[in-house]
């Protein structure tokens, strides 16, 4: 992503490139960075990456990395107003010891309370968003996406334990796949 940006920057014109951070991910201590490139007057390519490699208290695990490219169609003009997106995503995770009682659309997240899951995922979805123009170079972007993820994982007895109780299991997830409150800087 960085190499593509460096190669692209010499040709940058007004509002053809944006750099962004997702404040929702920032709130969960997930380091993230996104770049968006104009392809035409109404089409852009957004690529974001996320990383959380920190240790959490009380044996809670919330480690992950993922990338999420998205093609966006802007209804009026790029980087302003309403847009629709189609995205893909892929990454790895190591999560568990997260107390909750959530069972949502066929996925039992309450299993994260007493188990740790380690694996990878791949999938995609569609999204709707809106970009509020804050100034010449700044926008605030809101986006919500739904889609599908296929995952393979190993399950461990507890967040801090090493005893594996399930191996190479698969899960099909359908539901929210993207939530963003992006602070955007336009070049």
User: How much of the residues is beta strand, in percent?
Assistant: over 45%
Q: In DSSP terms, counting alpha (H) and pi (I) runs of 4 or more, how many helices? A: 2
Structural class: mainly beta
Number of strands: 10
Order of helices and strands: HEHEEEEEEEEE
Largest sheet, in brief, is: 8 strands, antiparallel, barrel
Classify the oligomer: single chain
Query: For the residues shown, what is the average pLDDT?
Result: 91
Unreliable runs: 9-13
Give the CA-based shape. Answer: elongated
Task: Kindly describe this structure.
This protein is mostly beta strands and 187 residues long. The chain has helices at residues 2-8, 23-26, and strands at residues 17-22, 31-38, 43-52, 61-74, 81-96, 103-104, 107-108, 116-133, 138-156, 164-186. The strands form two sheets. The protein has an eight-stranded antiparallel barrel. Strands 6-7 form a two-stranded antiparallel sheet. A hairpin with a 2-residue loop joins strand 6 and strand 7. The longest helix is centred in the N-terminal third of the chain and has 7 residues, at 2-8. Residues 9-13 have low confidence and may be disordered.
């Amino acid at each position: 992503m960085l190499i593509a940006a460096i190669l692209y920057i010499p040709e940058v014109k007004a509002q053809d490139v944006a750099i962004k951070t997702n404040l929702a991910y920032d709130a969960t201590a997930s380091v993230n960075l996104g770049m968006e490139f104009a392809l035409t007057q109404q089409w852009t390519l957004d690529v974001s990456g996320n990383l959380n490699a920190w240790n959490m208290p009380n044996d809670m695990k919330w480690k992950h990395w993922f990338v999420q490219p998205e093609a966006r169609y802007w209804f009026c003009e790029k980087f302003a107003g309403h847009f629709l997106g189609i995205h893909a995503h892929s990454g790895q995770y190591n999560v568990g010891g997260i107390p909750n009682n959530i069972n949502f659309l066929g996925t039992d997240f309450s299993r994260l309370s007493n188990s740790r899951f380690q694996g990878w995922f791949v999938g995609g979805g569609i999204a709707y968003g809106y970009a509020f123009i804050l100034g010449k170079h700044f926008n605030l972007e809101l986006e919500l996406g739904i889609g599908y993820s296929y995952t393979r994982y190993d399950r461990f007895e507890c967040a801090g334990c090493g005893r594996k109780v399930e191996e190479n299991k698969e899960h099909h997830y359908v539901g929210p796949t993207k939530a963003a409150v992006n602070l955007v800087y336009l070049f």
